[in-house]
Each structure stands twice: as C-alpha cells, then as structure tokens.
Amino acid sequence: MHAWRGINLENRQLQLPVKTEQNEPPHTLQRKLKARHLTMISLGGAIGTGLFLGSGPAIHSAGPGGALVAYAVIGIMVYFIMTSLGELASFMPVSGAFSTYATRFIDPAIGFALGWNYWFTWAMTLAAELSAATMVMKFWFPHSPSFLWSSMFLVLIFLLNYISVKGYGEGEYWFSLIKVATIVIFIVVGILMIFGIMNGEAIGFKNFTVGDAPFAGGFLATLGIFIAAGFSFQGTEIVGVAAGESEDPAKNVPKAVRSIFWRIFLFYILAILIIGLIVPYTNGSLQGHTIMVSPFTMVFEKVGLAFAASVMNAIILTAVLSAGNSSLYVTSRMLYSMANEGLAPKIFGKLNKRGVPIWGLIVTSLVGMLAFFASVFGDGVIYVWLMNAVGVTGFIFWLGIAASHYRFRKAYIAQGHSLADLPYLSKWFPFGPIFSFVLCFFVLLAQNYQAFLGDHINWAGVMAAYLGIPFFLVMWLGYKFIKKTKVIPLEKCQIDFNEHRNM
Q: What's the pLDDT score for residue 433?
C-alpha cells in the first residue's frame, strides 16, 4: 500500500508514494514493473527506425569511419546521461523524473518547461508513429484507407496502457525483444558473411578503403552524423520515468543503467561496422529511408533471404508500435506528476482503479489523432515543422538531466549527506554531467548548420530546425516571470534521504 505524503514545494504539493505493510490501494501508481521490464523499456527506447533506417544515410554521408566516430562519441555522452539519471532515479523514483528533479534542484521554472516540453515531444511522436504505422501497412496493402490502420494501432496501444502499468511493461518487453533479436541475428549473419562462412565469398575489409573511406565529407559530414546519432539514442531516458513504478527502484534502476548502455552501444557500433563492411558507402541506395533500401534489408537480401523486405517491414512495425506505446506511457505519467506538483491541471492527477492516469492517456491520444489528421488532410508543412521542433526538445531534456544531476550531487554534499548512502553512485562526477551538457549544447546549436552556409541564410530551414528552442525559452521565462521563481540555493534544495529510502 502507498500512503501519500505531501511535501511543500514553493506553495505546491508534491505527492510521493510511501510503502506500507499492506497491499497497494487501487488509486495510486502501481509498482509492478520488474527488472526485465525496465531493461527492455530502456533498451527498446533507443532501438528503432533511427537504427533500422537512419544508419544507411549516416554511413553514406560520412563514410563508415565517420559514422562510427559520431555514434561512438554520442554513445559515450548517452552513457553519462544514463548514469546521471540512474543516480537521480534510484534515489528519487518518481514518474515526473526530469520535471521533478529540475524543480527541486535547479528552479521550478526549469522543471515546468522541461515537463511540458517532454509531454509535447512524446505527444507529437505518437502522431508521427501513427502516420508511420500507416505507411508500413501500405507496403502490404497499398490501397487500404489510412484511417483504418492509424485508429486500429491507437486502440491497441491505448488498451495496453489502460489495462495497467504491467500491460505497458509486457507490451514494451515483447516489442523490444523482437527488435533486439533482429539486431543479434543481423550481427551474427553479418560476421559470417564478412569472413566468408556464409554466402561463399569473404567480403573482408575492402569496403573501408573504397573512395574516400573510411572517412568521407570531412569534419562537417561527421558533425551532421552527431546530430542523427543523438536522435537515434533518444528514448533511453524513459527508464527514469518508469522508475516511479518499478518494484524495487533502488535495485532495478541501477541494474538497468549498468547493462543498458553497453548493449545499446555494442548494438549500434557493431551494426554500423557490419553495414559499412558489407555495403560500400558509395552505394546510392544507402541514402534512402524506405524499407526496400534499409541497410538491414540489403544485407539480408545478400544472404539470399527472399522475403527480406517483408521481414524488415514487420520488424519496423514493431519499432513503430513500441514508440507509440512508450509515447502514451511517458506522457500520461509526466502529466500525472506535474498535476501533483501544481504544474498541470489537477484532472491529470486522477487515477483509475488500476492505478493508471487515464486523463493523460485520453488527452495525449486526442492530440496524436489531431496531428495525424492534419497530415492526412494535406497540412504536411506544419506537421514537418512540428516534428523538427520535437527533435530539438530531445536534446533539451538531456541538458536538463545533466544539470539536475550536477546540482543534486552538489546539494547532497552541501547538506552533509554521505555518498556511501546513495543507492547508485554515478562515476566520473563532475566530468560526466559537464561533458554531457557541453556536447549536447553544441550539437543542439549546430544541428542545422547547413542553413547558414551559402550566399543566403535558409530562414525556413532555421525556423524548422530551431523552433523548439524558443518554445522552451517561452515556457521557462514565462513561468519564471509570472511565478517570480529563483534558482534554489544548494542548502535549500529539498533532499529527504529517509523519505526516498522508504519508497
């Protein structure tokens, strides 16, 4: 059972669950996510179309070496982001995650802006995934109505989330397992092909010397892949939101963080290495973003798999459904937590008898469908702009995680607590959060440097790429001006060690 304890937070009440000896009542968040769920949620969040489709254009643009360097550097940054999040989420396992951490350790205005940006990101991601699912299904059923597939898939993922948090966890576990199995099979098959064990002829390392390989296009080309790699890794932070409903966050969150990075890192690095070795970067098909020219499809076809395109289409469909499933989960939990902190309407703080924030699910679903209909009825330009803005917000909440962790650790020490008492201790502090913040900030500003090159600035490109930044600034500075908030001194940051130990 969870009793609720209110904690004053500048005239707001942050509701945090505290375990008691009895069973959990129905009107609280239910701690039913097991360690395997957390691991797969975080793993699956970073494996999707960014790898299955986006890896080809990355290799084509910067060569196999440039792609490897970019993904490795961004992967290291993500490692530090994850360790920062692991320390925060194991100590304070709340569904508000980034919003709550920033509110307590930096400034409530930052927490407000991060929370609403995160909700916006995933609400629009849901709309994108509904559209993507329709396009995937039209690979098999080209003349079918779009509304049929988008509505069917929305109902499916809505029910997975509505049933219970365990329903979401099980759905995401199996979606992620399919994606992971595909990558493992791909890596094994690719290695066998490279050394001639499968398909007869050994490919070796000759494609790393084709043209300008392994590096092509110079530094700017590799910089462009930094941006694509960052987008590909987004989703790993979902484990921070899910920690609020984990059975044993002090144990399961660190376990997920320790294992998840190396798996994702190896999956991406090995997959890109194998693609670069088997398919020359000069192959024009790599620059496509369709199922037929997915680098995974191309490699499987080289093996002789007759139905490679159909198989990869099915895999990409699971990736799409996984992203949609996660979209509904994280948006409903973020709205729930923000409502309890006074940063969102109170209705979002209400739970159904299964412990699910139903109004968050409903509102996000409606927003997702509205965006989908906008794209259906030809308002494509606005839709593309919205999705570009969503891409920016991913880097913004990573910046928020790094800054929150830095401030938390400083406040923790300043208030006389011992690091030995933390459930999980992030290594390389303060280098980790500082490195993550600086690199993330650099990539965020440089994401569309091409718009500034040439004789004239491409203002349309600038607006499309950077729209998320003024949106965040308006939310942050607007709240700060209205509420007159200030940066919280380290000595006054709200840290109650016993409170979180008993959660």
A: 95
Residue 7 β-bridge partners: 14
- Which pLDDT belongs to residue 319? 85
CB 172 within 8 A of CB 324: no
- Chain centroid to Cα 154, Å, comes to 20
Spatial CA neighbour of 182 closest among 51, 304, 36, 39? 51
Q: Give the pair of three-digit tokens for residue 275.
A: 């693609």
**Dist. CA 503–CA 499, nearest whole Å:** 7
Report in angstroms the alpha-carbon separations of 271 from 13, 77, 165, 180. 47, 19, 32, 12
Q: Are 225 and 67 in contact (CB under 8 A)?
A: yes
Check residue 340 and report its DSSP letter.
Answer: H
Q: Given this model, what pLDDT does residue 502 score?
A: 43
Give 355's contacts (C-beta < 8 A, 6+ positions apart): 24, 26, 27, 28, 29, 30, 164, 165
Q: Which residues does the chain have with pLDDT short of 70?
A: 1-32, 35, 42, 45, 96, 260, 288-292, 371-391, 454, 460-461, 464, 496-503
pLDDT of residue 452: 72
User: What six digits make up the tokens of 243?
Assistant: 């920690």
Task: Give dist(CA 265, CA 285) in Å, integer.
Answer: 25
Number of CB atoms found within 10 A of residue 418's CB: 9
Q: Is the dihedral of CA 371, 376, 378, 380 positive or negative?
A: positive
The pLDDT, as a whole number, for residue 374 is 54
Q: What is the dihedral of CA 292, 295, 298, 304, to 10 degrees?
A: -120
Positive or negative torsion for Cα 439, 444, 448, 452? negative
**Burial class for 181, CB neighbours closer than 10 Å (0-12, 13-18, 19+):** exposed
User: Which residues on adjacent β-strands are paired with residue 246?
Assistant: 33
The model carries a pTM of 0.83
Q: What is residue 29's predicted lDDT score, i.e. its pLDDT?
A: 64
Query: Which residue type sits at 406?
Result: Y
> Which long-range CB contacts under 8 A does 73-76 form with residues at least 24 apart?
73/226, 73/229, 73/439, 74/226, 74/229, 74/230, 74/233, 74/439, 74/443, 75/229, 75/233, 75/261, 75/264, 75/265, 75/268, 75/269
- What's the angle, vertex CA 38, arms to CA 53 and CA 499, rounded to 5? 140
* Fold held by 35-485: Amino acid/polyamine transporter I (1.20.1740)
**Token pair for 349:** 């703080």
Structure tokens at 438: 């600086």
Q: What pLDDT sits at residue 11? A: 39
Runs of H (alpha helix) within 195-282:
218-233, 238-242, 249-278
If you compute the radius of gyration of the chain from its CA atoms, what whole number of angstroms results?
A: 23
